[in-house]
Amino acid sequence: HSNNRKLPVIWLETSDSGDNNIAFMNTTYPYLHQVLTDMIDLLYSNTFMAAQGEDALDLLFESAEEFQGEFVLIVEGAIPTKDNGIYNIIARTKNGNITALDAVTNLGGMAQYVVAAGTCASFGGASSAAPNTTGSVGVGSVLKREVINVSGCPVNPDWLVGTLAHLLMYGKPELDELDRPKLFYGNTVHRHCQRRSYFDKDDFAKKLGDVECMFSQGCVGPRTGSDCPYRQWINHVSWPVKVNTPCIGCTNQDFPDASAPFFKP
Ligand code: SF4
Ligand code: F3S
Description:
- The chain has helices spanning 19-25, 32-39, 53-66, 100-110, 119-123, 157-169, 182-185, 189-192, 196-200, 228-231; strands at 7-13, 40-45, 72-76, 79-80, 89-93, 96-99, 113-117, 136-137, 148-150.
- Helix 1 packs across helix 6 (157-169).
- The chain has 10 helices and 9 strands.
- The strands form 3 sheets. It has a 5-stranded parallel sheet with strand order 2-1-3-7-9, sandwiched between helices.
- The termini are far apart.
- The longest helix has 14 residues, at 53-66.
- It folds into 2 domains: 7-184, NADH:ubiquinone oxidoreductase-like, 20kDa subunit (Rossmann fold, 3-Layer(aba) Sandwich), CATH 3.40.50.700; 189-259, Cytochrome-c3 Hydrogenase, Chain A, domain 2, CATH 4.10.480.10.
- With 265 residues, the protein is α/β, with parallel strands linked by helices.
- Iron/sulfur cluster binds next to helix 8 and helix 9.
């Protein structure tokens, strides 16, 4: 790293499956320990911190005060808004419940940058899928400020760590029309897909497992922005189409409802 400054980060998990922090742990170049020791100063995270209960909550408020206007708020998960946000409570205190809606609203106003990690935080995602009984929405819908959306179900660790690295070293990355960093989401899956030559020859798979283009099986790669075909997953070794699964559009604003059913044989 080029300087000694670390990025102060407060990581709030709201309504998601926890898949995004698990994906984050798979980071390579830099590895997780390097991210946590050299790159970010992780002030609060219910997954990665040792403190629990009131001690953890005190740390949350103290660090938000201390680093006001400087910290990055990472939100992992959608925000339930129905019935005053009662469907996600991050803490119970003597003064009442603190909902995810309260916490994200307050901390979002104090942060230098707000980063939505994963498709739930970015756009509502699976947590807001029909019939969305909790009235869940993405972070950008509850904050009156810009949110950097780093979508994906889960987020690819490179997309999240790369965004944080960009914030640390160069400031805000250039964003697309959905407020996502263009360097990761600027091209479609289809553009660089290894089966693109089949698509161009109208040579389509008749069933899952065939080697040809899976547009016939419901692949939504042509309308999905991400660099999966060359960045890949799990230490950069594979990605959905490479293992015979159509792209189901997990980075999209309308995922998962508009992608369902995922397979259309
Ligand atoms: Fe495009 Fe999907 Fe076919 Fe790949 S498999 S070429 S992403 S439609
Ligand atoms: Fe998601 Fe499609 Fe990549 S489903 S992981 S954007 S190939």
